[in-house]
Every structure is written in C-alpha cells, then in structure tokens.
Amino acid sequence: MPANLFEWENHLSALREMLRGATQGRGRLALVSGAVASGKTTLLNTFAEQAIESGALLLEATGSRAERDLPFGIIRKIFDNGAMPSDVRSEVIALLDGNGLESTAAGRMHVMSQISSVLLRMVEDRTLVVLVDDVHCGDDQSLQFLLHLARRVRQAKVLIVLTESPRLRQEQFTFHAELLRQPNCVRMRLHMLTEPGVAEALSGFLSATVAARLAPECHRVSGGNPMLLRALLEDWRTVGEHGEAQQRPAPGEAFAHAVLGCLHRGEPEVLEVARGVAVLGDARSPRLLGQLLDLSVSTVQQGVQDLHQCAILEHNAFRDEVARTAVLDATPATARDALHARAARLLHADGASALDVARQLVSARQDAERWTVPVLREAAEFALVEEELEFALRCLEHAHHACGPGPERTALKARLVSIAWRIGPAAAESHLPELLADAERGRLAPRDVAPITSYLVWSGRLDAAADAVAALARSAGTGDDPAMTAAVSASAQWLTMLSPPLRDRLPTVGTGVTAATGAPRDMAYLAYAHAAATMSAALTEGQADRAVIEAERVLQRHHLSDSTLQPLVIALLALVLAGRLDLALSWCERLLGECSARRVLTWQALLSAVRAEIALRQGDLQVAAHQARGAMSRISVQGWGVGIGLLLSTLIQAETGMGHYDEAMALLEQPLPDELFQTLPGLLYLRARGRCHLATGRYHAALGDFTAAGELMEAWRMDMPLLTPWRVDAAETWLALGDPKRARALAEEQLRLGPEDPRLRGALLVVLARTDELKRRVPRLKEAVEILEGGDDRIQLAIALGELGRAYRSLGDFNRGRVFVRKAWHVAKTCGADPLCRELMPRHADAGEFAAAAAQPSQGAEQQRDVEALTEAEVRIAVLAAHGNTNREIASKLFVTVSTVEQHLTRIYRKLNVKRRRDLPAKLSDSSLTGTV
Prior knowledge:
The protein has 48 helices and seven strands. The protein is mainly alpha-helical. Among the domains are: 185 residues, P-loop containing nucleotide triphosphate hydrolases (Rossmann fold, 3-Layer(aba) Sandwich), CATH 3.40.50; 76 residues, no CATH class; 81 residues, no CATH class; 55 residues, Orthogonal Bundle (Arc Repressor Mutant, subunit A), CATH 1.10.10.10. The protein has a five-stranded parallel beta sheet, with helices on both faces. It has a two-stranded antiparallel ribbon with strand order 6-7. It is elongated. 51% of the residues are buried.
C-alpha cells in the first residue's frame, strides 16, 4: 500500500490537471472527503496558491456550524472577496438581498440562476476557481446554489473544489448524491498516514535513518493523523531545547492541544462522546455510553466512529493516556465530577467490578453516598492485591467520609491507617488521633487493638497507647468478650516489651494467648502476644533456646501482612539477640524476597533494618551500612518514630567501625523522638552513640552514654546485657581512660552474672585479659579466641586475635605474635574495619616488626621456612585442618566454598611435603603457628 503522503501529492497533481482542463473550457468539479485533521484544508490551501500563480480568479469560503442557519451564508462569503470586481459583487449582493429569495421555490431558483449567470460572465477572460472548505457545515440554500452551479459549468472555464467530512447530515445526502452524479465530478479521499507515510513525513524534518527509527512509535501515538504528528514532533523539539535527552517522541502539551483541536473541529456530539469515553475508559458499550451522556445509541456509535476515523481512538480506547487526560482536563470540573458520579451508579447497576465502580467514585471528588461504602472497601482490598496503595487509601478515605460515627467507621479508619503505614508511617500520623479517641470509647474491634497499639508506640505516643489499652481493659473487664480480652492482653504485653517503664501503668488482663480461651483465633493479636513473649525470653538470661523456638513458631505461623509485620520483625530480632544469626539471616532473606516484588516501602525498610543489624553482628560493616542506608531511604527520618533507635544504632556503629567518623557524627545530629529513651531502641541508640564517642576519643561522653543505659535498665528492673552490654562498654572506656581497676570491676561484675552468649563472654575475656598481668593474659585470650571462633562476630574475633598476638609479642614470641596479628588483620580487613586494621599493623611498624621476628633463633629452621612459604589463606586453612576441622567446617568458618578449601589443602600438602591431613599437626607443632586456632 503506498504511503499516504504520495496519495496527498497525487490528489494535488489531479487538481492541477483539472485546473488545466478548466482553463481550456472543460469545467470540473472535485469533492474531497476525509476525516477531521486528515489534511483536507492543507490540500485546499496549497492548491489555492498554485491556482493564483496560474492567473485564475480565486473565490473561496469556509463552512461553519455556527452559520449553518444563515441563508446563503457561504455564497455571501464567496462574493465578499477582494478579487471579485466591485460591480459584480454589488450586483450579486443586490440579488441576494432582493425579495425573490423569500418567495416561492421557483423564485429562489430564478435568483440562483441569475447569480450563476453573473459568475459565468466573468470566465470569458480568465478561469474561475471556487474553493469551499467544510462544505458539510454550509447552509441549505448555499448547498442548493453550489449544486445548481455545478450543473452549469461543464462547458465553462470553472473549477469547483469542495471538501467534506465523511459524516453527512440527513439533509446533505441528496446534495452529495447529486454532486457525484455529475459526469465532470471527481471524488477524492484522504486517509490517515500509514507507517511508511509517517516515515516519509518525518524525513522532511529528520534524517532518513532517524525517521525510519521513530516512525513506528510516532504512528502508534498519532495514528497517522497529520495534525497530531506535527504536535508530537513539536513536543519532541521542546524537550530537546530544554536539554533533556529523549530517544523517541513522547506526547506532551502540544499533542494535548492538538487532540482538543481535532475534537472541536468535529460535530458537537463527537466532543461529548470523547468525554464519555475518557470517563469510562473505553467505548466498548455504546448503550452504557449513551446512558451516561443522555444520547441515543446511534449517535454514540456515530461519534465513536468519527473518533476512530480521526485516529484519536483505537480499538475503542484512546491511543495514548495523554489524549484521555487532555479531554478530562478540558471538561469543566463540575461536569466532569457529575459524569464520574453518574458513571459509578451506572456501572454499579450494570454489575461492574468494585474496582471499576470505585475508580469513578474516587474521580468524582464528591461526597460519597452510603451505598458506596461496601463497594469502596472491597475495591481497596483488590487494589492492594494490585499494589495500588494510593488508590486503596483514597477508596477507604471516601468510604470513611460516607460512614457515620460507630464501629464500622472506626474499622474503616483502622484499615486506612494500616494501608497508610505501608506507604510510610508518617502518612498514618494524621489518622491516629481519631483512632485513639475511638479506642478510649471502646469502639476498636479486637483484631485492630494490637496493630493500632503498635502504631501508637511507633509514633512515640507511649502514654496515649497505655491509656487506650487501660480503657479497653476496663471495657473488657467483664470477660463477656474473650476476643477483646485476649487482644488487650496481647497489646499490654507488646507495650511492656517495647517500653518497660509502662509495666506499672498497664492492667493485668491475662497472659495473652490463654486469655483468648473461647475467642476466635485472630492471628493479628496472637502474633503480637507471641512476638512479645519471644523477645522477653531472648532478653532473659538462660532462655535463649526457648526464645529461638518461640521465634521460629512466630515466623512459621504468621505470613507477612500489615498486621503481622512488626511481630515478625521482633521475632527476627529475638533470634539475633539469642545468637542465632544464621536463622535470623535465613528468615530475613526469605521475608525480603516475599516483598521484593511488592511496592511496600515500609515492609522493605523494616526488614532491611533487621538485615543491617544481622550484618553488623556478623562483622560485615559494609553490608550493614548499605542495608541501613537503604532502609533510611525508604522511610523519612520523621516517619521512623522510635524505630529510628534501631536504624541509627546499626548505621552509626557500622560507619564508626569502618572509620567514617564524620558520617557517624553527622548521624548523631539527627533529631530524636522524646520518648525514644523509654523504649528498647533507645538503649541500642545509647550504646551506638557511646561506641562512636569511644572511637573518636570522647571518653567521658562515651562513659556517660554507657552509664545512662545501665541506669535505665536498673530503673526498669531488668538487666539486658544481650541488648546493651553496658558494663563491657564502660570497662573498655575506663581502660582508655587509664583506669584498669574500674574496668576490671565492671567486667568481673558482668562475668558473675553468668553471660551464656559467646559474643558477650568473648568480649569480657578480652577486657579482663587487658587488665591481667602479662603471664595470665595469654590463657584468657586463647579462651576468648576459641569461644569467638565458634560464633559469628568476626570483628570481636579480630580484636581477640590481635590482643593475643600482642600478648605473644610482649612475651618475646615474635613469630607467633606475628601470625596472630596478621590473622587478626585479615579478619578485620574482610569486615571493612579499617581503623582496626591500622591499629593491628601500622605501616611504619611492619618492616621492623617482621625483621625482628625473622632474626629470632628457632628450632627446625627448615620446617619453619616451609611453613612461612604458605600464604595467609593457606596458613588459616592449615591450622584449622590440623585442629581436626572438616573441609565443610573450615569453609563455614572462613566464609569460602568447600572447593576452595580442597584446592588450598592440595597446595599446602605440596609445600609442607606431607601426604595427608593427619601429618599436619606434627609438621606445624614446632612452628609459630601452634595454637593459632
């Protein structure tokens, strides 16, 4: 199929040929038809210029719907022309103003014959060209005259060119048919540009290569409509002028204006139909569209056909959302809202889905009626499945406004808050006061009590949360509602767990799960009760195993949702505090995977914060900082509420450990909620701030933070060294201040309390060793290394190894000291702990230290040289293998694959000249590596 640009050129060439024929006395008539904006006017204007250049007398006019009822309106325009001789114009005007037009049909015909004769007298000397654009908008009398003239020009030097829309009024059918009956009439059709035609049109502005590349997308958006295509290119140029690189044109302001221009050039009902299609989203149901617009089905079908012909619609829908938005924006607000409201009622009566009805209700921006409440609630839940959080929120807001005060309105508000919390806790803040008031009135449903309590705590409304739970407890005091009793109990446990100072203000209404006897198994409050119990067990000495069991039960039983997110996070943190970082990491990664494809920023942020804490306790500082920064980017700092304590604690310690002291100090400037230090996250923050002060030499500030944490726990009547080991931290600070006596007293006090956690005990032994005399230091440090090697904290292991290496050096065993220090340096390096690396092996000391070690006399020099031929990685694997570790155990300890261990062992055997694993202890026994692991 040839490109439409060639079609347009062919029509222009045909008109020129018809003009030559007219000049020779063979009158011609051309009827050009095409949809709105198909190029009819452009064709006419181009031909008009060429006709003038040929010396023809040009008379032209344009039909207008506004002048359709004005008799002989087009004819008057034709003769009101500067090229018309004045005497001829006067004669014709006199005929038009005479009484003959108002008499009988025969009289009108006589007048039209006289006017025709006047025109034909003018063609004796020059060719006459009559051009009428949009003749379908002309008045009936003018159409009759043009038809009369057409019958008389066959043997005259006259060319008549008319353009029309393919859609004709009923009274125009006769005119159209009579024109086409004339033997000298030629009909021309203009179609929209095909894709090759678009490419050809673009080549006039762009290179052929670029035009060919852009043609498919330009054709898809414009449908080949020349007006829309020009607007599309204008938008592209505008974007380019602003310096924004864009691979392909995208519709913008010019395109939107062009769409409206097309609509206003069509029949009035076409614009109305376009508005209806914009409101409903498509034109698949002419019946529904007609009911919406109060138009007949036939009128709607004709309007839809027109919209397809001018390429604004494709497959009963707008080609591009920009066009639909332009039509909606150009509709007066009152009319638009009324259309949306009416569409909602029609769709609901027609059995449409809740989502479709709700979209109309939300777009109407009017007060919702009572019947819309269940529809909006259902639509909100479906929208959540589609991850349309903002729309779900708007649905519930409309439903909430349509409800009167009572339990249903409160339930709507509670659900609204849970969805707002998905978007960001700050988005839920404005809704909490109303919910708090409803809670104090006893209007909360049991399923909403624990989640709403948790939101109040998160936002720092601790006292308000406690008052609300107390009020609900009083209303549930009779025990007539077991579910409410259980929900209040779970909420009280949750509050007490997160904010121990509230313990004395909360009533005792049962023990969570047991209080729910006979109640429905509402998973929400069970999750909060179980998670609170799990965290309490994790913070209690001697109950780590129970905490792990309970945490896994919570994680296995409750799926990730709005009402279970915080309990699942607490269960993960309980695993972390219980020392099961492996389980915590596995569950955390699983939960992150569940929400990775879902756009729930709050869920991702909280789980990323836990992942950061896990990485921190594993000694992976870079991962910890990356995850914490990611969590902070998903929720604003203000939105974190008291949860900011956990996030900043992790990030400050990670940045401090990596030596990024400026970044860590900047984080200390973040504003904090006043209530933070009444919660467990507040203890975490105090420790992180103290560690940052300790690392930067602000020892008294550090001591103040650690002591404050201890005083808080004493006031709360609960010692939680697994959460904040303040005595160990304070002991390190006293050592930095040069007071080993106080440091030892604090460490021994903590040791007497019996810490079972390997990480804590290892750190205590290191502190005690630093206060011991030299000969007793090595046994403590070796015990610390042995304990820490079985754990996950690689930074604490690096510290212990470094202290052990220093102890050996102090005793004169430089070779052994060097090995431990180098191993400590390597572990610290893998953690990203650059300050610890510099402390272990400062550059200016390396050469002298190891030269001195090499100069020390030793037995078995040849064997020592064999051992020294091993690389650092081979040394670590050789020692672990000598101590009886399997290849899998070695791989786990060194965070490498089993295959890597096997390859290293092959090289180790060759360098040490041994054939099997059991020969390693003997080969290493006299070297400085003895006892490394």
